[in-house]
């Protein structure tokens, strides 16, 4: 998801984007939070705490272009969760269904994100009273500092919290307890450095976790039990990413059961993918044979063409009259699918059913272009003819 490439490992900043897009929530009036993706607009985008986040939004832009069905709000949340897992952390469950605002009318006021120069009272006021997190959840969420680092040009602070900022583990908590921290002598804001190497840093809000007795008990737990940290972090981060979102996006939202007809339609597409004409016939009256897969916009015919099932393609086009030129979320028709994977007989079946050769997908390719690119000269000759 554009988080790691030859130029950059953007996992830490992706998690920061998700965090900051969500951490503006105020439970007293329901304002802020990740729904709406208002972090794209001023004044929220210009909050000093969000400095530099344009970079990750630009890195994610091609994903949005290729998947317009996904909202920016869902994309930001999902990227943040995936970044944690990519760096060795826990799987953070993310339910989709956030929507995008069209402007910044609902942007929360600047100043809602944490002030790293503060102490335990600030953390409880911000996370607990305003957002609804427990002390245990506050400490678990603070563990996100086990990855990434501060940059002076953005936050005013500088340095990493751990020896491996591109790995998600419990070192942050171990460092808080096992290293000695003293104020850093420099011309920047108050932060702390370790006396052992002088290479690591902690913020005042970090040291507040060991200066407060209740917070410290959870620091000690996570320092000795990484699995407990992973479990609690995944739960708290999932809760954070859903702040201000509709009920169906909440982590504890029940999964809606498919209706009998929807389940039959899903089964029908599955049978089509495997070329099981007999199984499709048995349930075709209970299913909507024209129904599309919600995640991709693909029909049963797309699936049959993809895998080269000529008998299934004939059944779907000749008997059930499925749309041979239907385009999925990527703009591909069944003819694109069969031309790309070299299914000559399926291409013949689709052309016989009236499939158009001129349809262009979202990548700008016709079926002929795909046949040529993937070295299927017999199909290319047929499409040219």
Q: Can you tell me about this structure?
A:
The protein is mainly alpha-helical. Among the domains are: 120-227, Peroxidase, domain 2 (Orthogonal Bundle); 260-384, Alpha Horseshoe (Serine Threonine Protein Phosphatase 5, Tetratricopeptide repeat), CATH 1.25.40. The protein is built from 18 helices and five strands. The chain has a three-stranded antiparallel β-sheet. Strand 4 (192-194) and strand 5 (201-202) form a beta hairpin. Helix 14 (310-319) runs parallel beside helix 16 (344-352). The longest helix is centred in the middle third of the chain and has 16 residues, at 226-241. The chain is elongated, with a radius of gyration of 26 Å. The model has no long low-confidence stretch (mean pLDDT 95).
């Amino acid at each position: 998801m554009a988080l790691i490439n030859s130029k950059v490992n953007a996992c830490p900043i992706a998690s920061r984007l998700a965090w900051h897009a969500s951490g503006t929530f105020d439970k007293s009036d329901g304002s802020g939070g990740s729904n709406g993706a208002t972090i794209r607009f001023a004044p929220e985008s210009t909050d000093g705490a969000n400095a530099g986040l344009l970079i990750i939004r630009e890195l994610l832009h091609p994903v949005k272009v290729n998947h317009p069905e996904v909202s920016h709000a869902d994309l930001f949340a999902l990227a943040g969760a995936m970044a944690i897992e990519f760096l060795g952390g826990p799987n953070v469950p993310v339910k989709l269904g956030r929507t995008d605002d069209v402007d910044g009318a609902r942007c929360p006021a600047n100043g809602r994100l944490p002030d790293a120069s503060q102490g335990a009272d600030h953390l409880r006021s911000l996370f607990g009273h305003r957002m609804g997190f427990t002390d245990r959840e506050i400490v678990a969420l603070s563990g996100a500092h086990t990855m990434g680092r501060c940059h002076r040009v953005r936050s005013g602070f500088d340095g990493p919290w751990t020896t491996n900022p591109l790995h998600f583990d419990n070192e942050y908590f171990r460092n808080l307890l096992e290293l000695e921290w003293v104020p850093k002598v420099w011309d920047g804001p108050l932060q702390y450095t370790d006396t052992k190497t002088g290479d690591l840093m902690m913020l005042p809000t970090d040291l507040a976790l060991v200066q407060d007795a209740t917070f410290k008990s959870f620091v000690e737990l996570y320092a000795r039990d990484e699995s407990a940290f992973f479990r609690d972090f995944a739960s708290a981060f999932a809760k954070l990413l859903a702040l201000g979102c509709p009920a169906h996006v909440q982590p504890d939202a029940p999964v809606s059961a498919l209706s009998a007809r929807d389940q039959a339609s899903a089964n029908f597409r599955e049978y089509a993918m495997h070329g099981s004409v007999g199984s499709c016939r048995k349930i075709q009256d209970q299913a909507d044979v024209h129904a599309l897969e919600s995640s991709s916009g693909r029909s049963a015919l797309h699936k049959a063409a993809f895998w080269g099932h000529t008998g299934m393609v004939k059944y779907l086009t000749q008997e059930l009259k499925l749309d041979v030129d239907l385009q999925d979320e990527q703009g591909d028709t069944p003819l694109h699918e069969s031309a790309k994977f070299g299914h000559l007989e399926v291409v013949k079946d689709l052309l016989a059913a009236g499939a158009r050769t001129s349809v262009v997908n979202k990548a700008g390719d016709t079926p002929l272009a795909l046949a040529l690119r993937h070295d299927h000269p017999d199909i290319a000759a047929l499409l040219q003819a």
